[in-house]
Amino acid sequence: MAITAIKGFNDILPVESGRWQHIEQAARRVFELNGFSEIRVPIMEKTELFCRSIGDATDIVEKEMYSFIDKGGNAVTLRPEGTAGVMRAFIEHKLYAQDPVAKIYYLGPMFRYERPQKGRYRQFHQIGAEITGVHDPLADAQVLNMLVQFFREIGLDEPQLQVNSLGCPECRPAYRSDLIGFLEQRVDALCEDCRRRLSTNPLRALDCKVPGCIAATAGAPSMLDNLCGACDGHFTSVKRYLDLTGTPYSINPRMVRGLDYYTRTTFEMVTSLLGSQSAVAAGGRYDGLISQLGGPSIPGIGFAMGVERVALLLGEKDFCRQPDLFMATLGAGEREFAFRLMNELLQKGLRVEMDYEGKSLKSQLRRADKLGARYSVVIGESEVASGRAILKRMADGVQMETALAADGLCTLLC
Ligand code: HAM
């Protein structure tokens, strides 16, 4: 029996990979325009890194990590997200010593042992960006503007930006106890997961999708009504800066993130087009994370988008480059002629295709059509002898006579 891929691990086949490249190239373009540089970190880290940053009581750490003991007896984990590893590298290489304000982006595979469904996989890919060293809410707004700019760049009106604030170690503990008090009065209506997390991670009840929990938490106290003065001021400024640049957003006071390191601003780009996997990108501020991982007290904010989800939103669009020219040939001598010409044109940056196998003219022209070539040309003995041929524009059938030479063809086709 043939061996198949592991459940939840996908092959990205041609055409689909064209969409991925379109996404990746747009992200690099937009991020680099905004002053971000790429960092490449390992896909495996010490397990402790994720426990300490993402948090022991999160679904990711409790249930979803690919963790194992390697042959040397070390506890290691395939990264479930990018921020922890990037901040580990930021601290380890003392990048803050050159400049505490670092703008970094990354892309690559992440691993979570979740139940696979459309838009949710066990190996998935993120493109993420992080800014360190800026307390000012201008950084929050600029990260959000960059994310919105990215979606515009790839031609998607969806998804919609939602923002929230999760407060800070000053104001969240009191809110947390209020919320626990509220939930305890309705404990019988909560699902088993929310009951279990009541004292360790009560906020998760706010975004639980189980109908009983939605009903039970309808009048729950909101973090936004319980922010301390500093967090409230910060959130007000983020909203003002977004308004200033005309960035559309809505406020979602029930947004809870699945990672513990967030403080203050959190956000998601959501869509209704992907069923229950509505978050296409997400992130927030993590002012305590770098010090929590043993680094200096430097704030940070960033996001990651799920490439699979963005690609799903692009639908069936084909971003692969179509051939500029298909050369059909009538005999072996003409094939040699076309082969030489094709290589001269490739050198000039034109995408050219020809038939390698001596197929019939009809089948060659069918292939030109199938590949979506912009132009085709038929090369027979007389074309080789005269050095001229009729070029056909495939879209409308318009024909034009041209010299069969690289320079002339290049001027016509570029
Ligand atoms: P996250 O919300 O866990 O945040 O993931 C970010 C994005 O990754 C999600 O919005 C989703 O598009 C995608 N994603 C997550 N899990 C899966 C999955 N199983 N299958 C497909 N796509 C998935 C983080 O990972 C944070 N590190 C983001 C961040 C960066 N916060 C600050 N900086």
Describe the structure.
- By secondary structure, the protein is of the alpha+beta class.
- The protein has two domains: 14-171 and 227-313, 2-Layer Sandwich (BirA Bifunctional Protein, domain 2), CATH 3.30.930.10; 325-413, Anticodon-binding domain (Rossmann fold, 3-Layer(aba) Sandwich).
- The protein has 16 helices and 16 strands.
- The protein has helices spanning 16-33, 47-54, 59-64, 83-92, 95-98, 137-153, 172-184, 192-196, 211-216, 229-244, 289-292, 307-314, 332-347, 361-371, 381-386, 406-413; strands spanning 37-38, 44-46, 66-69, 75-78, 103-111, 123-132, 160-165, 250-251, 263-270, 279-285, 300-306, 325-329, 352-354, 375-379, 388-393, 399-403.
- An eight-stranded mixed beta sheet has the order 1-5-6-11-10-9-7-8. A five-stranded mixed beta sheet has the order 13-12-14-15-16, sandwiched between helices.
- Strand 12 (325-329), helix 13 and strand 13 (352-354) form a beta-alpha-beta unit.
- Helix 1 (16-33) runs antiparallel to helix 6, helix 6 (137-153) packs parallel to helix 10 and helix 13 crosses helix 16 (406-413).
- The protein is elongated.
- The model has no long low-confidence stretch (mean pLDDT 95).
- Histidyl-adenosine monophosphate (HAM) is lined by residues 81-83, 112, 114, 119-121, 124, 126, 128, 130, 258-259, 279-284, 302-306, 308-309.
